[in-house]
Amino acid sequence: MKKNASTYIVAYMIILLIGALNYIIFKYSANYKPVNYNFHNSNFYIRVLLLPMIGRILFGMSIGLESLLTKVGKHVKLKMNTTRLLIMGIPSLLISLIKILYVFGIIHYYFIRNETFLLSALFQILFGYIIISSIEKKEITN
User: What is the pTM of this model?
Assistant: First the structure.
């Protein structure tokens, strides 16, 4: 499929929709005020840890969406580049999960600093981009 204006318009509309969804998610998460700061409250996990993480991963996926839309065509089969996903995706996923690993006690507090949370957010976006950019086209020959 050739890159044309409609491809870019679709990609940017999806980016805007996911951006709006992220705004709603972060407003929803920011309004959470736990009564007793019980980390084992499932509502805490969902609102403060899981929803923002999913939102950032979706945002990263939307950044790479334009390249995916240009790969789609009539005689094209999409395949996942598992080597790229394993080499780049797994480490970025592990860094993305730092907050969750900390809350569950898998890593200790001396690894966690304010910069680590920012790094975690950036790697969540990167992980979403790696997922989308790992999809490659495979030409179908008849």
Answer: 0.73
